[in-house]
Amino acid sequence: MNDLDSLLAAAESDFAAAQQGAELENAKARYLGRTGHLTELLKGLGALPPEEKKTRGAEINQAKAGIEALLTAARERLSRAELETQLRAEALDVTLPGRQRGMGGLHPVSRTIERIEAIFASMGFDVAEGPEIETDWMSFTALNNPENHPARSMQDTFYVDMKDAEGRWLNLRPHTSPMQVRYARMHAARYADEVSQGRQMPEVRVIAPGRVYRVDSDATHSPMFHQIEGLWLGENVSFKDLKVTFSAFVREFFETDDFDVRFRPSFFPFTEPSAEIDIRFGSGPLAGRWLEVAGSGQVHPNVVRSYNLDPETAIGFAFGMGADRMAMLRYGIDDLRLMFDGDLRFLSQFQ
Ligand code: DAH
After folding, report:
1. Number of domains composing the chain
2. pLDDT digits (tens, 9 = 90+) for 231-286
3. Is the CB of 210 inside a 6 Å radius of any atom of ligand 1?
4. Which of 118, 253, 304, 346 could anchor a disulfide with 311, C-beta 3.0 to 4.6 Å?
5. Best substitution site from 176, 268, 321 to test ligand 1's pocket, by max atoms within 8 Å of Cβ?
6. pTM of the model
7. Whose CA is nearest to atom 8 of ligand 1?
8. Angle at which helices 21-32 and 3-17 pack, to 10 degrees?
9. Residues 152 and 223 in one domain
10. Within this chain, do residues 183 and 308 fall inside the same structural domain, yes or no?
């Protein structure tokens, strides 16, 4: 191998080693630059005799052309590699399936509550919501629940280890009944002026849906469940009105006329008399069985007093029903726990 061949070989491996444009241009300068190997060889020609100069010159020029060709090839290789890297970085896989986004939907209990709200709203009932952390006074005392009543015990009620500003213990409300008190007191305050001027107070008609909490958990009890409280107070609202109202509600809710309603005597501290409301369908999958759907009764005078109203002039009924139970009856669900497991295979059936 002569010196020009080895120069060519050296240039080839130098160019091949270059990973970047700048490295290649540095390598180029070492061969073709102003002080590069080839330039130096060409400068050396002057010292040769004329004959030799001609052949040597031709050889050097050929080597130079060879190095230039190698350089062009190396530049192309680098720019191809650069393009490839860029393409890879910006690659879009158009065959990748799009991300599915489920439509979502309302939980069967939410649907049920909305349905119940709409039915009672059509009968002139307001819808009210209130706090889930309640005072002892709202949950029990105002509802004529004596201090030593078993419902207050830790076995039944979740307590919050904290008192309110007035030193009253807080609990997770065990029922929506405190909303009777909150709403009726608000109503009494709103119309206090008119009543003191001898005018008639508008009736109280409200339902209050929401979460309630009890220390209880099995196939038919969950520590958190939903109730809907109802209250209708007027000058002379009676059990007859309760029966008519509740029957109208059942007819709308279950979309049937084929049922009976009965009041079964019961006890609640906040009502006197008190009754469980049972319904029995004449047809359909639930036909023939009495189903308990709500507690109810005529509001106790002591409770009317905690509304800041006069039990002589504010008379009416209250009821409380289990919203989860109403959803189960409507949709034919037999295990309460399904309602709170959050299993999409169950929930998606209601969309
Ligand atoms: N608060 C009762 C419970 O949780 C249900 C109830 C019964 C509500 C009678 C009422 C009522 O308003 O009048 O079991």
Report:
1. 2
2. 999 999 999 999 999 999 999 999 999 999 999 999 999 999 999 999 999 999 99
3. no
4. 304
5. 268
6. 0.73
7. 320
8. 170
9. yes
10. yes
